[in-house]
Amino acid sequence: MASKSFTNLLRWTVFILNFLFWIAGIAVLGVCIWLLFDRGVAQRMMELDERLHEFYVAVYLLLAVGIVMSLLGFMGCCGALRQSKCLLVSFFILLVIVFCAELTCGILAYTHQEQVQQYIEKSMYDTVLNRYGVEKAYTDVFDSIQSGLRCCGVKSYRDWLDSYYATQKRDLPEFGFGSGGIGRVPFSCCNALGMREHSLNCGTTYDKIPLSMYEPYLNTKGCLNAVYGKFYQNLDIVIGLAVGIGCFQLIGMVFTMLLCCWIDHKKKEEYKTGGY
């Protein structure tokens, strides 16, 4: 009786773990299908970056992850319910491969974080100097960053002095000359004081007078450090989720092997007692 209860406990534990894994895989598949077939998403990505194929490469990779997760979960559920050692061992091997792949990705992300930071900095400078005021999607995204994180420019508000927005966009009421330290900044750079005292034209009328005179009205810190700060502020959550997923997979491996060993043990006991 105790033996049967222990077997059932292992079976249902492995089943529940794999059922959750299967549900997660189905959720990933659903997101990927939405990203692939929703035209609004594709249009938005076209506005953000002309290299749309890179977006689809990422989605297809995520789709592959979802398929693998779904198959693994389904295989584990079937193996647990049928007490099939073949299915359980196959599931265990594949789960080990997935776990090692995730661990490798984490190590690569950690060891290449300098390159990632350089890419982020380069992209932000490209937006400020060349794309802001030209491409609406980039303009909206950077405005959201500046207003949300209360920052301005990449490393300083002075990054705007040599931008297309400050020196060439003549459809605005005024235009400045960056080389002389004179120019405009977007409205999203303005702090509470600037928006209160220059509610209609904060930032856009800072022309013919050195921009430094308007510092009290601006968020002067750069957005690069603000973005990094926001990321590191939530780093504990990201690490916690990664560790949680890893532990979940390790628990699945342990219980799967326990169930396999118990199936072997039960078969040997049945053989000894003439069960076959």
TrEMBL record:
Keyword vocabulary terms for this entry: Membrane, Transmembrane, Transmembrane helix
Membrane topology note: Multi-pass membrane protein
Family indicated by similarity: Belongs to the tetraspanin (TM4SF) family.
Name of the featured protein: Tetraspanin
Listed SUPFAM superfamilies: Tetraspanin
Protein's UniProt keywords contain Membrane: yes
UniProt-annotated location(s): Membrane
Membrane-crossing residue ranges in chain numbering: 12-37, 57-81, 88-110, 237-263
GO cellular component, one term: plasma membrane
UniProt-listed InterPro entries: Tetraspanin/Peripherin (IPR018499), Tetraspanin_animals (IPR000301), Tetraspanin_EC2_sf (IPR008952)
